[in-house]
Amino acid sequence: MDKLIITAAICGAEVKKNQNENIPYSVEEIAHEAESAYNAGASIIHLHVRKEDGTPTQDLNVFKTCIDAIKEKCGDVIIQPSTGGAVGMSDDERLNPIKLLPEMASLDCGTLNFGGSDIFVNTEDTIIYFADKMKQLNIKPEIEVFDKGMIDTAFRICREGHIKAPLQFNFVMGIRGGISATLRDLAFMKDSIPHDSTYTVTGVGRHQFTMAAMAMSSGGNVRVGFEDNIYIEKGVLAKSNGEMVEKVVRMAKEIGRDIASPNEAREILQLGRSNK
């Protein structure tokens, strides 16, 4: 079994300080939270950025400032900007951070109901447009999937040459409108991806650490962080992203799974390479 790659999704686009005062907004807060996760064992920082008032933004200058600040504190960490942005942003606005040539970026492979009247729209044209731009810049997409059909979409656009194998998936499980966070559904998703693929599991809300345990015991990787969950345990707000990463590291040690460094994660994910 490969070493465990831990991704920290440190702030997201939607959670607010009135839900947990430790949610980072400013450049300094974001860099501090990235450092806490990195020092605890995270090798990938999944990055959204905010305006000072907490409003999500895809502004290129804000991304650059945050990435520079994270690199200064975290050295060799892999920084994975989000191209999901926030509901209502244009395609080109969402794509802004890839102009900074990160090693990885997220690629959402389907449309999802987010509850109420919110719809996270990713048409096939949008998906292919994003994929082609990343391929041109040799940026590895992490394929964000919220249900089985999105795996099929990713596999199809890979066959059509828009993305390169081996593929890296992130199964987002337990979100309203998406697949449930259960062992049955994780096995279904895992068995649906190409054999040479790698995968990370993101459990949303109360499912975060349950799904982390299932992921690490089945050979997958784990994502935790304030974007997906604000509690360290039932009823107890997390103090930092680092605290959540530390919990995953303890869980991994209990089952004998070693933690991947950033450079080991690069090898496992074959960053910068194109096999096909």
Task: Quickly describe the structure.
With 276 residues, this protein is an alpha/beta fold. It has helices at residues 27-40, 60-74, 91-95, 124-136, 148-159, 183-190, 208-217, 241-254, 262-269; strands at 6-9, 44-47, 49-50, 56-57, 78-81, 104-108, 112-115, 118-120, 140-145, 168-173, 198-203, 221-224, 231-233, 236-237. The strands form four sheets. It has an eight-stranded parallel sheet, with helices on both faces. Strands 3-4 form a two-stranded antiparallel sheet. Strands 7-8 form a two-stranded antiparallel ribbon.
Show the helix and strand layout.
Elements: E1 6-9, H1 27-40, E2 44-47, E3 49-50, E4 56-57, H2 60-74, E5 78-81, H3 91-95, E6 104-108, E7 112-115, E8 118-120, H4 124-136, E9 140-145, H5 148-159, E10 168-173, H6 183-190, E11 198-203, H7 208-217, E12 221-224, E13 231-233, E14 236-237, H8 241-254, H9 262-269
Description:
With 276 residues, the protein is of the alpha/beta class. The chain has a single domain (6-269), classed as TIM Barrel, CATH 3.20.20.70. Helix content is 36%, strand content 20%. The protein has nine helices and 14 strands. It has helices at residues 27-40, 60-74, 91-95, 124-136, 148-159, 183-190, 208-217, 241-254, 262-269, and strands at residues 6-9, 44-47, 49-50, 56-57, 78-81, 104-108, 112-115, 118-120, 140-145, 168-173, 198-203, 221-224, 231-233, 236-237. It has an eight-stranded parallel sheet with strand order 5-2-1-12-11-10-9-6, sandwiched between helices. Strands 3-4 form a two-stranded antiparallel sheet. A hairpin with a 2-residue loop joins β13 (231-233) and β14. α1 runs parallel beside α2 and α1 runs parallel beside α8. The chain is globular, with a radius of gyration of 17 Å. The mean pLDDT is 96.
